């Protein structure tokens, strides 16, 4: 995590503020679980044209597992990936990934 913008004071402040506002993992909450968030992730990766310092709506609080899964599935095109941002289903059996075809493929 030593690369720009993660090594800046602005990012550290933004990260701490997002974790204070959303201390639980977003993906785990969608699954009906409670897990503390330890990472703040860009909804749209910087490499894909995302804002390095977006508003809170452009960030997600995630646990380590969900952050790693999302990064490997979406943000690293050099790796074979499923393309699903989040694996799993909610308590009703619906896919939690907002980009899933079930949701209309949006996100």
TrEMBL record:
Keyword line: Endonuclease, Hydrolase, Nuclease
Annotated HNH domain residues: 25-72
One Pfam family cited in the UniProt record for this chain: HNH
Residue ranges of the region described as Disordered: 74-107
Lineage: superkingdom: Bacteria
Molecular function as annotated in GO: endonuclease activity
Coiled-coil positions: none
The keyword Kinase is assigned to this record: no
UniProt-recorded name of the protein: HNH endonuclease
Organism: Mesorhizobium retamae
């Amino acid at each position: 995590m030593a690369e720009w913008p993660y090594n800046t004071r602005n990012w550290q402040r933004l990260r701490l503020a997002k974790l204070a506002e959303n201390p639980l993992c977003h993906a785990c909450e969608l699954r009906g679980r409670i897990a503390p968030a330890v990472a703040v992730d860009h909804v749209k990766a910087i490499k894909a044209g995302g804002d390095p310092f977006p508003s809170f709506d452009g960030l997600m609080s995630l646990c380590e597992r969900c952050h790693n899964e999302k990064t490997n599935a979406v943000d690293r095109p050099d790796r074979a990936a499923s393309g699903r941002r989040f694996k799993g289903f909610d308590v009703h059996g619906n896919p939690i990934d907002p980009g899933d075809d079930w949701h209309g493929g949006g996100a």
